[in-house]
Amino acid sequence: MNGAANRPHLVVLSGAGMSAESGIKTFRDNDGLWENHDVMEVATPEAFARNPDLVHRFYNARRAQLKEVKPNEGHFILADLEQDHRVSIVTQNVDDLHERAGSSFVVHLHGELRKVRSTLDPSLIYDWDRDVLPEDRCEKGAPLRPHIVWFGEQVPQLLAGAELVSQADMVVIVGTSMQVYPAAGLVGYARPKVPVFYVDPRPSISNELQQRLEHLELIENGASEGLAWLRHQLRNA
């Protein structure tokens, strides 16, 4: 087939389990902590208003950690699938491992760790690889904040993700339980007979997936192993 427009459109919904194999801790652990912090102390607008220094220190550390980890085999498999498919990735992850592995189209639902934005004008977004310091300001003189969607905030890219899913020829869910809304509802935008592949060592069936059982295939493996199996199946179908 010639050109991406003529290739089947594969839309990937990825979550924390996708990056866990690279050593990035999942956001929601059983102890309610993320990197030893109560998420409500570092991931809400109220927390930032109350203690911006703590929030910046937390994300500065996460940004530094991101430089120490690498994409895993699952990330590279998704990039490799662009040889045969038009691949769109809609991720809940704030890391850049999909991009570093070579994926060319990634929508970040929950923001990006390597970006900051103005607290005055949300349209002023900056690439950022170093620590954020108290004196750092946007071009309008306002303090900066992490370019992260916190608990209680709207998800600006949700509509873009829903639009992509509605155009998919197949959907792959990997590294996410599909239990946390609003992202969990995205698979509901897929056309009725579109096949859905769900890669997870312990898959749980949401209401949206329950409605798609006829066209749902469970791949009960971790991200890299499950995606390797899926790539083999797609190329040998």
Question: Which range best describes the helical content: under 10%, 10-25%, 25-40%, 40-55%, 55-70% or over 70%?
Answer: 25-40%
Average per-residue pLDDT, rounded, comes to: 90
Strand content: 15-25%
Question: What structural category arises from helix and sheet content?
Answer: alpha/beta
| Gross geometry | elongated
Describe this structure in words.
By secondary structure, this protein is α/β, with parallel strands linked by helices. It is 29% helix and 20% strand. The chain has a 6-stranded parallel β-sheet with strand order 5-4-1-9-10-11, with helices on both faces. The protein has a 3-stranded antiparallel β-sheet with strand order 7-6-8, with helices on one face. Helix 5 (73-80) runs parallel beside helix 9 (223-235). The longest helix has 15 residues, at 52-66. The relative contact order is 0.17.
